[in-house]
Amino acid sequence: MRTLTLLQAVNDALHTKMREDERVTVFGEDVGPKGGVFLATEGLTQEFGKQRCFDTPLSEDGIVGAAVGMAVNGLLPVCEIQFQDFIFPAFDQIVSEAAKLRYRSGGQYTAPMVIRTPYGGGIRGGLYHSQSGEAYFAHTPGLKVVIPSTPHDAKGLLIAAIEDPDPVLFLEPKALYRSVKGEVPEGRYSIDLSTVRTVREGSDVTVFCYGAMVPVCEKAAAKAAEGGIETHVMDLRTLLPLDEEAVLDAARRTGRVVVVHEAPRFCGYGAEISALIAENAIEYMEAPVRRVTGFDTPFPNTLEHHYMPDERRVLDAIEGVASF
Amino acid sequence: MAELQQILDETGALVGEVPDLSDERLTELFQHMLMIRSLDGRMLKLQRAGRVGFVGTATGLEASLVGAAAPLLPQDWMWSGLREGGAAITRGLPMSEYVAQMYCNSNDTAKGRQMCNHFQHKESNYPSWSSVIGTQITHGVGAAYASARRGDDAVHSIHFGDGASSSNGFHSGMNLAGVWQAPCVFVCIDNGWAISVKSSEQTAAESYSDKAEAYGMPGVTVDGNDVLAVYVAMKTAVERARAEGGPSLVVLKTYRMLGHSSSDDPSKYREDAEVEAWAQRDPLDRYESFLIARGLIDANERSVQEEAIVAEIDEVIHEQEAAPPFPLRSLVEDVYSEVPRHLRLQFNQFLEVAERRGDATPGDGAFPL
Question: What ipTM goes with this model?
Fold first, then answer.
């Protein structure tokens, strides 16, 4: 099977769906002839024309608001926000409009649409090209929030997101765009949203992670194994709606849990995982849940490699809960 | 469509009235333009050598930056985005601070927190700005309102690109300034491209300056490669604002000769012929011809000046290369006026791990709790 980067897999998913369904429409800043600042939409305008993949004026609020209107009226918009850091002018349209349309209309109107956006640190982008804002959106009923970590998942989950009847925020870990490669099937396939992926089996400690933290946790787990600790690593990949049963099963399996994300800790996604376990599986716990996260500060620039959880911080937490 | 204001034509010939500036000041404007172009060249070299991460150039925009900043008084403020760093130098930002910011090192006044090319200089009223497009526009309007209330006689010059004219900040800012008659000038640098989106695809208006009318203020379109025309248009707008005549919009038509940034390849979306046509309207060549014709400089002056400027820049680069990065503690500082307990705890825990794993940096002692 052919091998693609995560970025190429995103591009392949867009090509695949656009060939199959003429309603699929891609737009955003610089997504046209340039192919996006990361080249995720490369070749789409060339293949499908300016009607189906086009540049917009620089207005995130306009992009997402127009996507809602297109979705209401029969298109399948897949819009791009150039960096997740720039999504906030569109926050109102995402949170107040796209996510609530089905509910407020009693199911009469819906907004089947995808907002793709690169998130996360590791590219020396400073505080406005590095943020991980998933928790803001995972707190929004009506929205789905998806984060892939492998090329295979990126394609299958993006296709599922485009086919989903509800609005999906598709966060792409930009640090992995070109650094991970993997086998990706040709043609259409999809991965059910709200399913987790077991990255590694283990019986001593369970690590929950997603996005760019998955390879970090894999490395830490491999190191832990050298010291005799078998780590179960789970990629959550659909943060909303979460496969809660799979999370609880994995937590009960070891009784020792570490949650890892690069976003700040306070009210971060790890807090939800911790609460879920505390409410439903505390009797299985052999150690307190540990979170390894970014600091509760804005994202730094020069010191970003210290801010982001790395192999040694994750390993330290794994060893900590294992020996508790 | 608005008429294009010009004093020097594309060859540098005089087609309008030379503003009332001394010979020294006329020559200084040229030196400033040369400085900006030389800085771009040096920074791009550093970027290619992997010494700095990112450069947003101003090559082609020198007349728009220098001409717009020149009429401002020391008490005035400049609110800007990516490409105005060179203009800030002409108003007092030290070259050493500019280069330190590019290195994000321990001499950077922003403590290495912003990505490269995000300058600030408090002493000359040049505030820190974010990478988010258009957000500085309403800040400038609010600050202008405060100036009027406080009576500090400052005018606020608010710079943004053609792309930002589509942002919420532009519409809110223009509207508020019109309603409040705030002492500010909106400087739209229409450099042809917002990354890969042509400025003609950013708006259906014939001219960006037409947008002023809807907000109840005057708008003009100026040849942004003509430093004298930019100076005169800005001087008029700044004086109007200072005399409580209200805000106005000055659109500077120019061209971004290089990519959006050092990460961008413009050959993917624009034609060489277009770039070549704008090279014929180069703001430095044009102004140089004028100064030579006026007898203020001779044909050798440019290369002599350039050499001196590059030597100065290189000396600064040399100094800044040696500066260390910020200590680890700065990870949790400046989030609030004091480091709160939860951040002291987070830092101490981080340090414990670093010490256990053998990569703590000397001098990064734990916070007392």
Answer: 0.89
